[in-house]
Write a structure and sequence with these properties.
This protein is mainly β. It has helices at residues 3-14, 33-36, and strands spanning 43-55, 58-61, 63-64, 70-85, 90-106, 112-119, 121-133, 138-149, 156-157, 160-161, 174-185, 190-201, 208-209, 213-224, 233-244, 248-249, 252-253, 259-272, 276-295, 298-310. A hairpin with a 3-residue loop joins β18 (259-272) and β19. It starts with a helix and ends with a strand.
């Protein structure tokens, strides 16, 4: 290994600035009244989604940068959420996920790669119906929960402590709050959703604290009516905004962290035998603005499956 490559690897390992990869985000709100509202009493809802995300272009602010430390970053993530209806107005939910990989490929010769894998976090929350008007078909729900890391130890790869961007969990506890507004129009087969998810984070044992994240999504969905479709298909368009405040290291702001992003995500949903909900979604970024120099997001794909059982 030549001296230049050794120097770059030292940068990768110890720099709190240059390895930041914004695209490695696994949160993706799942749309649909079946997924957003509280459950009926004594019913069980299972939701799972697989997501592939990637990034290969650096940004400075909202402009493309010629910085080239990381050639490509990508991940494969599987999430599962189980909800249970305690009462007609209150549900409990447990959410977790597993990274098959969180990988960064570096512009080094020969090639150099760092990759992490494993469980992310557990989120235990309580969801409550704040307003329900079946006549006007308006529903509002809210939830509050706690984030529990699957591990408080950071992973190593090839004798290198992985950057936080490829750790499956950074080992910090936190809190998660969500809200959902749903309006249905049966005459036009249209539904409108507005969702918000806010994540607050504490510091891990090494003093690293991720910034607060706020995800806001607006959905428009419509049943696709045609004789050959049998009314089982729904088209959904999601407009999503993601805002992240800068991270902290021992109380000091981390350079090149924090961002504002907008995505458009077309989604197609199919109901199988009135029980299984299958969806496919594509994330397309339309605006990205980063503090400092960061790796931006490229198009990603998500596949969702859910089912509700009445016990």
């Amino acid at each position: 290994m030549n001296k230049l490559n050794l120097f770059l690897i030292l940068l990768i390992t110890f720099s709190p600035v240059l390895t930041h990869a914004q695209c490695l985000s696994s949160v993706n709100p799942v749309g649909g009244t079946n997924n957003l509202l509280v459950l009926e009493k004594n019913s069980l809802r299972i939701i799972s989604f697989y997501k592939y995300g990637q990034g290969n272009q650096y940004y400075e602010g909202n402009s493309v940068s010629d910085f080239e430390l990381i050639e490509k970053a990508f991940y494969n993530y599987l999430s599962a959420s189980v909800g249970y209806g305690l009462t007609w107005k209150t549900s409990v939910e447990l959410e977790t996920g597993y990274f098959f990989n969180k990988t960064q490929d570096y512009n080094l010769a020969p090639g150099y790669r760092l990759s992490g894998h494993g469980l992310s976090n557990f989120i235990l929350s309580v969801k409550h119906s704040l307003y329900s008007n079946p006549f006007k078909r308006i529903y509002i729900t809210g939830s509050a929960g706690t984030k529990i890391p699957s591990s408080q130890k950071l992973q190593w790869d090839n004798n290198v402590k992985l950057p936080v961007e490829v750790q499956p969990t950074i080992g910090a506890f936190g809190a998660v709050f969500t809200s959902s507004f749903v309006k249905e129009n049966s005459e036009t087969s249209m539904r409108y959703f507005l969702t918000n998810r806010t994540e607050l984070n504490g510091s891990n044992k090494e003093g690293y604290r991720p910034g607060t994240s706020v995800y806001t999504s607006f959905y428009i969905s419509r049943h696709l009516r045609a004789p050959w479709l049998k009314d089982n298909w729904t088209a959904i368009v999601q407009i999503r905004n993601e805002i992240r405040s800068p991270d902290k290291i021992s109380g000091k702001t981390k350079e090149s962290s924090g961002s504002t992003l907008f995505f458009v995500a077309p989604q197609l949903n199919y109901v199988l035998k009135d029980n299984w909900y299958l969806s496919a979604m594509v994330d397309l970024h339309v605006y990205q603005n980063f503090k400092g120099t960061q790796l931006g997001a490229s198009p990603g794909i998500t596949f969702i499956i859910s089912r509700t059982l009445r016990l």
